[in-house]
Amino acid sequence: MKSFSFPGTPGICAALACAAVALASCGGKATIDGTLADAPSSEVILKKLDIDRYEVLDTVKVNRNGKYTYRLDVEKGQPEFVYVFRGDTKIASMLLERGDHVAVVSDTLGNFTTEGSAESRKFADVEKKYAEFTAKFDSLTNRLSVLPPDSEEAALTRKQAGAAYISYYRDRLRYIMENPYSLTSVPVLYQTAGPDRLPVFGQITDAIHFSNISDSLATVYPESKYVKALKDEAGRRADLLDLKVRLQNAGEVGYPDFELTDINAEKVRLSEVDAKVILLHFWTSGNASQKMFNLDVLKPIYEDYHSRGLEIYQVALDADKAAWASVVKDQGLPWINACDIAGMNARVARLYNISTLPVSFVIADGSLVDEKITDGKSLRRVLDRLL
Asked: Which superkingdom heads the taxonomic lineage of this protein's source (predicted)?
């Protein structure tokens, strides 16, 4: 070890030097005092987040009283997301700044509390709400996977899952808007749900939220690796959003576009329909089975998926416009309804090469989806995948 000499009294100078080194050492660390009461004389694993993966810090012994202590280095202005695991179970989560001294009490099931750090308390609440949401959402999606797709119970379960997802998204949006300068907003933006890891903030317009939080955090934590990674993701999403806007402004779409007058005497252009997924359905109101298809299949599907981003653009190829309008009003069809009195000779029928009715097309992300829709089941499968 390199030695140092100081002018003046050797004993006093040496003591002061040791004290300064000790103070600097403590100041550059964060301390965790943990309690795991229901698993004494065991061990826990400490991990920290390295952008998109866990990095193991150490394995720590828990004494017979359920206590353990750990200290880790934390760079100034670069807080760390730190987690405590027992086996494969995460039992505590913290956001530690340099100099923090946090007391964490947890059990082996993943329930925990923290004291001594305001940011860690916020993060604990974020983790708790996320766990509650994923437990509810997973339960609904698991139940849905074993139900007959066209059953009333399946329809109700889909509606409940959609409502849970939308409610959680709104709650988390409110959270990040209320905490733009807290690093706890970062993991919220990356949360996913369900077996398919559906992003909570997965809409293309969520690029705005990524950008706003990134800009706010950069004023407080300019050197944080988490903020730098968020800035990169915000840029990627902003590019996608910009591309979508430019494509919309250019009027270029990956499907035949048209404009028809709807039941309310308003012109509606297909490319201007604001929806994640559009079901373009051609039919004739003079056919009894096609009228029943509206009530038995399309209406339940619309009720289940409209809130998730589905819109239906239904085109009747009917010469008798008055009869068509009467059917639409009698059935109370809530989506976009239009009629072309040229029937099978209509321009829109030629655009889509229609030779028989009914026929459906699904449009998503500006293009026709290469899927054959034959009935309600096949349509629901496609919509479940897209929405």
From this structure: Bacteria
